[in-house]
Amino acid sequence: MNARRLLLALHWSLLAVLVAGVVVAGAWRLGGGRWERVETASMGTVAPVNTLLWVEPVDAASLRVGDFVTFHPPGHDEVSYSHRIAAVHPDGTFETQGEITAPDPWRLSADDLVGRVVMRWYGVGWLVVAAPVLLAGGLLVWLVVASLRDRSWRLPVAIVGTALVLSVAIVVHRPLVRAQQLGFGEVPGGARATYVSTGLAPVRLQAHRGPHVDLRDGEVGSVLITHRDHEGRYGISMSPRIPPWWWIVLVAACFLPSLASLARPGPRIGAHALDRSLRAAR
């Protein structure tokens, strides 16, 4: 299979995947399913911030303790929560609770129930949030590339433009390194700070001149701070802790444009043009 056929097969494969995705999403929606994006860290590592939840309708009578459900708090149909069922009462009402939070202050009935979570797509919610930037930037890059008459410039411009669009989305929405403070209080010998990681990349929380804790998305950890900074405050710094396999993926991604350029057939020099060039050289 030559390079042209390989690229054509790749294009058709991507189109088939896109069509299949649209069909599956449409069937899910027509069957009563819906999607919910996690916006808080209450479910810890079970459903970190910006996990995309697939929620299907369910009979409230079939629910059991531990089921992961989506619901509206009583009297607030405009708000949705996704927590586990903590208790089921004989009258058909039930209580809920997050993985890292206290029990919710309400009892729910079947009318408050939206459905049961059947799938969790970690991190996909960030794509939903960044969709306006990615779509607008992608359209702009496509228009610029399509306007270039010299085909040799199209691939480099597409690569640089795509990198810029991704960079803008990352700067605007900051999906990689994030953490939310859950608690802070003085203890004998210093202060203890508790955080939950809410970004895609693992993070290290380092106490000033003290210990540290490494957290992945949705994990909760605490740090004992025993030294104050030069301003007399207890301080914590946060930095990414990129694992080795992340670097391997990033380096491999950097070589993809080179592989794509090698797969594209280069310009061919005709026999007559080559003969003329040889004559001119003589």
UniProtKB/TrEMBL annotation:
Residue intervals passing through the bilayer: 121-145, 157-176, 245-263
Keyword Membrane: yes
A molecular function (GO) term: serine-type endopeptidase activity
Database matches in InterPro entries: Peptidase_S26
Entry keyword set: Membrane, Transmembrane, Transmembrane helix
Single GO BP term: signal peptide processing
Origin: domain of life: Bacteria
Keyword Membrane tagged: yes
Ranges in a coiled coil: none
Protein name: S26 family signal peptidase
Species in which this protein is naturally found: Nocardioides kongjuensis
